[in-house]
Structure formats: structure tokens, C-alpha cells
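Blackboard transcription, Thursday session:
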Amino acid sequence: MTLATGKVGIICCSGEDLPEGTISRVATGLVLEKLRPDQTVTLCLPLFLAGGEDERVFARLFPTIAVDGCSKKCAEAGTKKFSGKPVATILVSEVMKKYPHLKIKSRGKLEPQEMELATKVAEEIAKKVDEILCKKAKK
Amino acid sequence: MALLTMGDDDALKLVRETPCIAIDGCPSQCSKKNIEASMGKLAHNIIVTDVLRKNRSLKPEGVIELNDQGDKLAEIIAGMVSEKVDEILHEEKCE
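(Written on the board underneath:)
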């Protein structure tokens, strides 16, 4: 990972137990690859414990968004514990409540409905990225 | 794995009482390190990049959605993990 200014770090859930974890990772991928590729970088949550100094330093110096699958909020808590509090947390289980017609069950390849939910989550992340960068620009 | 990072009691108990296979995407080996740091029972570890080196004809692509070659590599790794699971369970049965 290369440190860069004008970027927002995205720290994503690494849970495998629930489909929400998969949704969080696909949504993060959509933001990084398609929606905001030039404004975002991803930080590896497990590297925080494994002692990834680059990840810890980035999260201390730059704004971060945690994307969590469930209410345990490991990404938010892990970032807070080893670096600094994320500026925002997007919780997949909360986003799901806004779209009750979208049902999810896959932990592997996503079905069309699940991909639609991942896209909704990705849009919320992207919106938050814009807010953070806009605030930074105004300062 | 994130639960291990957070020191979740149930997750810690599980890795300490159950043989674990770490499957790591890159040489940083975070899964392995997290199991070791949690004093878990690491029975085996697989690094995806090592498997890829042995299967150079495969060119996995796509983070959001894997291409067919990525799926093939995932199947190979799943096969390796399943074999190891059988070995571990067989050894436990023989003990």
C-alpha cells in the first residue's frame, strides 16, 4: 500500500459466516474498481492484528470508512483499536432494512438481487467518500 | 478472522479447541498469523499465490466477480482443503 493524500481508506468486513460479509466485500470492490477508483484505497483488516504498519499509519493519518456486515462491527472496532476511529461506518444489515424486497443468501457468487444490494451499499459508501473529501477540500 | 482480531471469546475458544486450516491470499499470511497470535491449533496453511505458481496456466482475474480461471483455481484450493480436512479427521480418529 502506498500512502497518498486526497484518499479515503475503506476497511471491509472479513467475515465468512453471513452473506452480509460477502455483500460488504463486493460493495467495497465496486467502489474501488468502478465508483471511486481514484479517491479510495482498501486497507486489510486482518493486517491490523498481524502488524501491518502501513495500514495502521494510513488509518491514523487519513480518513477511513468501515464497511461492516453485521452489528458486531469488527471493521469499525478493529480500526479504532489499532489506529483511529473511522469517520463513518456503513452497516450492510442496516442498508438491507431500506430494501426489504432484496433477499440475500449467498456467501459465494452473488445472485442478481444480491448484486443489486451490493450496488446500493457501494453507492452509500461512494456518497460518504464524496462527503468526506468535500469537507476536507473546504478546510 | 475479524472476530479473532477483536478477541471475541467464542471465536478464540473455537480456534483453540479445533484444528484450523489457514487459507491466505498473499504471502503476508494474515490468517495464519491471526491463528498463531490467538494461540489457536494451526493444523495446516495454504497460500493461494503458492498454488497459483504451481498452476501457471491459470490467470485468475476479477475481484468483484472471478473469471472462469479464477473459479478453477478456487476449486483446486477447495480440493486441497478438503483433502487436508479428511487427513486431520482420520488422524484424530486413529489417536
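Lecturer's comment: The first helix of chain B runs from residue 2 to 5.
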